[in-house]
Design goal:
The protein is built from 16 helices and 14 strands. It is α/β, with parallel strands linked by helices. Helix 9 runs parallel beside helix 12, helix 11 crosses helix 12 and helix 12 packs across helix 13. The relative contact order is 0.09. Bound molecules: uridine-5'-diphosphate-glucuronic acid. The site of uridine-5'-diphosphate-glucuronic acid has 21 residues, from helix 9.
């Protein structure tokens, strides 16, 4: 805990995944943090300590810091921004139609900050992933008041975001204003992680490049997996051997259904857009996106080859979340697969330990959902594991097989032991093993 002299009054704009994790983390470090969001229902729930999504550890911290009044939630900009020493922008930057990032929410947040912090000069800190040039845009917008701007990109992974806040691989600060950067760096005192102070463009680009590289690694792994399986090689072993080289590293080298989520797909597209805008080679980024899309088609192709036609066939899809340990379905590869299966005329029955499919949250995908994996598998001609939930690795495979009509199991996340699946009577096809 900080001594009273270094505790700051901070504003966080945006109560989404990034904003809430940072708000709770900064409050836990001892700062007084007020969070602004335009969604009144969300704010009302947060005031009662209810976090609107699943993130391990976040709910407990929110409740604890609400109780000691280091966290405040409001939809009134004046209440949050007045007197704040810094304003953290944590609003979404979704994909725009041209593949770049839609900076509309960012611009609206900036207008709000501009209007409601008129008597103050808060340091504006951008946490949202932005394209190169946002820091300069903000500086121009606030030129009359000479408001300092610092890029401080976030590197949190959903599902382990609280852990990532307290144990970062790096803290990156980019600004033309050394004093402002030092003030933001001071906030993180007590957190152990290397701090990089640099110029704004470098900070902005390093975040986008980091997500783009993670996405490239996954598409590379998926390409190698396809080559390994068509030549009788062991996919997982090939990738494991590759990852032991410290120049390559084992992370994000799991083959499977491809990457999804609110970040990797849109940041890879934004990287391609930026490369084109910069007259730099963009083909690498474009290819990684095409490979990612093709992974879903690859699963549909495997099912079609084995079942002849998918029309009228019952397919059980286990896992809806874009990855394990989250209830997030944004850009979920599983939902994209389900949608492609429905297009073929298949009947899709699903299960997820955490996600409840609702018409409003699933991008228009309508499939039946069951309360357990075995119930979902009942009467199915084929079963696909689409999310790497650890519990799917512990399923009673004999019971699962008995409840099905057919014997085809496509393990698109490599969670099962191939020998165990075959011993249970499955025609087992893996993508990641
Ligand atoms: C990603 C980055 O990992 C974070 O560093 C970054 O801060 C965050 O985006 C962001 O910009 O906010 P996240 O979206 O939570 O984090 O998800 P990842 O853990 O990177 O996984 C993304 C997708 O790739 C998932 O669908 C996952 O199943 C898939 N994946 C991951 C693979 O297919 N193979 C792997 O080896 C790893």
């Amino acid at each position: 805990m900080l001594d009273a002299a270094v505790r700051e009054r901070l504003a966080v704009v945006g109560a989404g995944h990034v904003g809430l994790v940072y708000a709770a983390g900064l409050a836990e470090l001892g700062h007084h943090v007020s969070v602004l969001d335009i969604d009144r229902d969300r704010i009302a729930a947060l005031r009662r300590g209810i976090v609107p999504f699943f993130e391990p550890g976040l709910g407990d911290l929110v409740k604890k810091d609400l109780a000691v009044r280091r966290l405040l939630f409001s939809s009134q900009p004046g209440e949050v921004l007045k007197g704040a020493k810094m304003a953290f922008i944590c609003v979404p930057t979704p994909s725009a139609n041209d593949g770049g990032l839609d900076e509309g929410p960012m611009r609206r947040a900036l207008q709000t900050i501009r209007r409601f912090s008129r008597r103050d000069r808060p340091i504006i800190v951008t946490k949202s992933t932005v394209s190169v040039g946002m820091n300069r845009y903000i500086k121009d917008l606030f030129r009359d008041r000479k408001v300092p701007v610092v890029s401080n990109p976030e590197y949190l992974r959903e599902g382990s975001a609280m852990h990532d806040f307290f144990h970062p691989h790096r803290i990156v600060l980019g600004s033309d204003d050394g004093d402002a950067m030092a003030a933001v760096a001071k906030l993180y005192e007590g957190i152990d992680g290397p701090v990089f102070t640099t110029d704004p463009v470098t900070a902005e680009l390093s975040k986008l490049a980091s997500n783009a590289f993670l996405a490239l690694k996954i598409s590379f792994a998926n390409s190698i997996a396809r080559i390994a399986s068509s030549n009788g090689g062991d996919v997982a072993e090939t990738l494991r051997i590759l990852g032991t080289d410290p120049r390559i590293g084992p992370g994000h080298l799991r083959a499977g259904l491809g990457f999804g989520g609110a970040c990797l797909p849109k940041d890879l597209a934004a990287m391609e857009h930026l490369a084109r805008r910069s007259a730099a080679p963009y083909e690498l980024f474009a290819a990684a996106q095409a490979i990612n899309r093709d992974q879903r088609q690859h699963v549909v192709d495997i099912l079609t080859a084995k079942l002849m036609s998918l029309s009228g066939r019952r397919i059980a899809v286990l896992g809806l979340a874009f990855k394990a340990d989250t209830d997030d379905v944004r850009e979920s590869p599983s939902l994209a697969l389900i949608s492609e299966l429905l297009d073929t005329g298949a009947n899709v029955v699903t299960h997820d330990p955490m996600v409840k499919l609702r018409a409003s949250s699933n991008g228009g995908v309508f499939a039946t959902q069951r309360r357990s994996a075995v119930e979902a598998a009942k009467g199915a001609h084929a079963l696909v594991i689409a999310t790497e939930w650890p519990q799917y690795g512990k399923l009673d495979l004999t019971r699962l097989r008995r409840s099905m009509k057919g014997d085809l199991l496509v393990d698109a996340r490599g969670v099962l032991e191939p020998a165990a699946a075959r011993a249970a009577g499955f025609d087992y096809v893996a993508i990641g093993t």
